[in-house]
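Why predict the complex rather than its parts? Because the way molecules touch one another can change local conformation, and only a joint prediction can capture that. The input here totals 329 residues.
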Amino acid sequence: MQTLSLEYPAGDPPPRRALAGVVGSGDLEVLLEPGSAGRSTVAVRTSVDGVNEIWTAVIDRIFADDNGPAVAVEINDFGATPAVVRLRIAQAMEQATRQSDGATP
Amino acid sequence: MGRVKDLNGGDYSRPRDRAPIFRPHDLVHIAPEALQNEAPDWARAVLANGEPVVVRRGWRDGNRLPVGVRGASRDRRHAMQVAPEHICGAVITPESLVESAAPQRAADVPALAALVELRALMTPWAGAWGIGGAVGYELASGVAACHEDSDIDLLLRLLERPDTAALRRLAAQLAELPVRCDLQMETPAGGVALADWLSEAADVLVKSDQGPYLAADPWRRGNL
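Output of the joint prediction:
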């Protein structure tokens, strides 16, 4: 088990928390909560050794926008590929930032 | 089924008596010379030991099959493509492993000990379900791939969308087993985790040969 903590400049926090993903091989769980204004934090726990560099590269890209939503993200990884990581974080981000529940088709 | 070794992909939710022949989670034996020069030494050792490789999801051009060599730890996975002339013998399907006798190691490995109970509860899905992951690998190869904390990776082919109540019942039964079971449904769109489909989320993650994507309903035709 390895852990990784990352931090990025960000804009304002989103209105609500969100969950995405499931426990299971090749997937991951994302718990995303509104963070403190101006700062996003990402904590990754992974069962795969030796993949910290890949994780850092993938997450750096996702949080490259300094004005993105300020979120505190916790990730439990079960061997997800970078493409799955991006989709699951995007899914959680979309839920957290949606203007009001059910308003968008 | 066309050619002797039809490597084409397709709809993996179809029953096994139809194409595609080689599907994700299947095990095949390949000739060691199929490994490229850059392959790690541990991968060579795995093949030299007579162990199979696992068919992967991935782009198929009909001439090469995407497979992965499985090493002893989770960071030891070597992805490669294999040409038909390097594939030896018949494909070992996850469905064929469900009747395997529990190995001697059942006393030490809870996942192997749970197989009897698992088989009983999967009876309604006979012919459509199979065992993958470390348990499937160990059943197929006899290699001690499982460890004390291994979970069970299950696969269920569902050409049509099943009744949600039946899936909820199945998920509840699996949750009662003494070992964690992760069930992946093979749908016409690709692999979808049962837990994901039964969750509140609007979309599920679909693992396809073209890569993962999100979809609302993996059984709806014209999804793409």
